[in-house]
Amino acid sequence: MRLVADLFLVIGAAFTLFGAIGLIRMPDVYNRIQAGTKAVTLGSLCLLIGIALLYPAWWSKLLVIGVLILITNPLGSSTIARALLKAGVKPWSRATVSHTGEADR
């Protein structure tokens, strides 16, 4: 059981690290929100599962924390993205428009 718990802890730490790297590497705020939300949510849930396997008496508390993470992370990120869109922040576009009016890729 210890090996499975350690595996979940390592996977959770890796996804959390990937989420942090995504916050730095992504080109615009919308991509950063997605990287931060999806990867860190999965990472924190894996960390909670690993902790729950190490300390079985904590299952109920960790379950409540996991449900709150599953509800609040996506809701918060979509609310922030919608507010940014309403404020006029444009999504990053890799396409450029040439002087002829055609999109270059």
What does this protein structure show overall?
The protein has helices at residues 2-25, 29-54, 59-86, and strands at residues 96-97, 103-104. The mean pLDDT is 89. It is built from three helices and two strands. A two-stranded antiparallel sheet has the order 1-2. It is 74% helix and 4% strand. A hairpin with a 5-residue loop joins strand 1 (96-97) and strand 2. With 105 residues, it is mainly alpha-helical.
What order do the helices and strands come in, and which of them pair?
Elements: H1 2-25, H2 29-54, H3 59-86, E1 96-97, E2 103-104
Antiparallel strand pairs: 1-2
Helix pairs in contact: 1-2, 2-3
Q: What is the compact description of this entry?
A:
The protein has helices at residues 2-25, 29-54, 59-86, and strands at 96-97, 103-104. The chain has 105 residues and is mainly alpha-helical. Strand 1 and strand 2 (103-104) form a beta hairpin.
Give descriptors for this structure.
74% helix; 105 residues; single chain; 2 strands; elongated; 3 helices; mainly alpha
Largest sheet: 2 strands, antiparallel
According to DSSP, the number of beta strands is 2
Helix tally equals: 3
Strand order of the largest sheet: 1-2
- Helical content stands at over 70%
